[in-house]
Write a structure and sequence with these properties.
By secondary structure, the protein is mainly alpha-helical. Helices cover about 65% and strands about 10% of the residues.
Length: about 170
């Protein structure tokens, strides 16, 4: 039991530290353009996949449609993204970057690339390729863990579904 506690505490400590550093670095870059890191991910996806719909954007960025819509609303208001209705079905809206959005996406991408070059300056015997291999393996391990870990249901939602007869 003591071993499991140490593993658990190490996991939490590493999780907090790794993601604190990475999220802070990402937000520092995107914040210069008044965009959150999550909003940048939407800009990047819209840039890479022309004529994408909100549903496709949510799927591509692994988020819910409502969360994507909230983040997108700010990008629309700030003039980074525009919508165009599909000709044969006006309810379907295609998303495109404006010139302003394209410029911001490009500038943020360049800042991330410049930041990534700092990996070469870390005093280590690992090459950039070794570091990338580590992150790739880490990502694959996390995906396996996520698929195999026990899933927990929130009791409130579970009870609410029972009352509604959805369970």
């Amino acid at each position: 039991m003591q071993h499991e506690e140490r593993v658990f505490e190490a996991f939490l400590r590493q999780y907090r530290e790794i993601f604190r550093v990475l999220i802070n670095a990402a937000e520092q870059i995107t914040g210069q353009y008044s965009v959150s890191f999550e909003q940048y991910l939407l800009l990047k996806q819209i840039h890479e996949q022309r004529n994408i719909t909100l549903s496709e954007l949510a799927d591509a960025t692994h988020t819910t449609r409502s969360a994507a819509a909230r983040k997108l609303r700010a990008l629309l208001l700030d003039g980074f993204v525009e919508q165009e209705a599909k000709l044969d079905d006006r309810r379907v809206k295609y998303l495109r970057l404006t010139t302003k959005g394209t410029n911001v996406e490009h500038d943020i991408r360049q800042a991330f690339l410049q930041s990534a070059e700092a990996w070469d300056q870390i005093p280590t015997n690992l090459t950039t390729e070794n570091i990338n291999d580590f992150f790739t393996q880490y990502q694959q391990n996390i995906a396996i863990w996520d698929r195999t870990r026990p899933k927990f249901r929130r009791p409130v939602l579970h009870a609410k579904k029972k009352v509604l007869g959805e369970d």
